[in-house]
Amino acid sequence: MNMIYDVMILGAGPAGLSAALYAGRSGLSVLLIEKGADGGQIAVTDEIENYPGQMPEGESGASLIKRMSAQAERFGSVRVRDQIQSVDFNGEVKKLQGEKEIYQGRYVIIAAGAHARPIGCEGEDKYRGSGISYCATCDANFFRDLEVYVAGGGDAAVEEAIYLTRFARKVTIIHRRDKLRAVKAIQERAFSNPKIDFLWDSVVEEVHGAGILQGLTVRNVKTGEKKQIEADPKDGMIGLFGFVGNIPNSALFQGILDMDENGYIRADEEMQTSVTGVYVAGDIRVKSVRQVVTAAADGAIAAVHISGKCN
Length: 311
Prior knowledge:
- There is one protein chain.
- This protein folds into two domains: 4-115 and 246-310, FAD/NAD(P)-binding domain; 125-242, FAD/NAD(P)-binding domain (3-Layer(bba) Sandwich).
- Helices cover 22% and strands 26% of the residues.
- It has helices at residues 14-25, 61-74, 136-139, 155-164, 184-191, 292-310, and strands at residues 4-10, 30-34, 78-81, 84-88, 94-98, 102-110, 114-116, 132-133, 147-151, 170-174, 196-199, 202-208, 215-220, 226-230, 239-242, 246-248, 278-280.
- The strands form four sheets. Strands 1, 2, 3, 4, 5, 6 and 17 form a seven-stranded mixed β-sheet that branches.
- It is elongated, with a radius of gyration of 21 Å.
């Protein structure tokens, strides 16, 4: 591809789509690169209640992202499905080496997001897709009328536990602390749901089963006591969903951009990274609040500042 774009955007989640909208509306030539489906983690979120301007009765992440994508496309973003393998941020023209071809642009906005952190229990890899999941919206239907456990205590964990009650017979939240970290409104919904139970001060230490997940070993972090949880013989299996945080998709930029100890990319208030001409937006950057609204704001800020330099 010989075209040199004004700005290349990596990732079509809320941050990337917002950046594409603002950059395109400013008259910049925009290349939006996404390896999979638009939306990132929000695309598999069942219910959104706190995004300004959304449907007031509530809506899914997929429906919100569909409208965001349409807005971005309205202002002329060129779309590419590709997996970026390496980057060259030296010089005025930045280069992104994809599986399909090389892309070039004067500015880059990294909006690659993050992915679910593993639960960290022994045997976890063996039962991924065979009882262990990290996406309730994707996999809840496979656990209809079964007992399900959720590891985590933040917003995502509690919201997904509530969603799972539509399918599972019983949902137990396993949390390493003695109180939830989720916002009060979400906690109240969980505590009032008769299908949700709690295991406090506990972590999943090990999982086991004959081909499918059939049992958990849960350890109390205060007493050290271990509890064995086994599937009801009539069910034959149980479910375990992990929502214990995220890992930024920043491995591609290690040693190139300044990051914190967890791999999140550092940026100034204009979203400028440690490399001139390279910006970052959304969950992949160092920040205190990671929500759809803050991701969209990051993308808009980055695009506006790039626009000011191009025009």
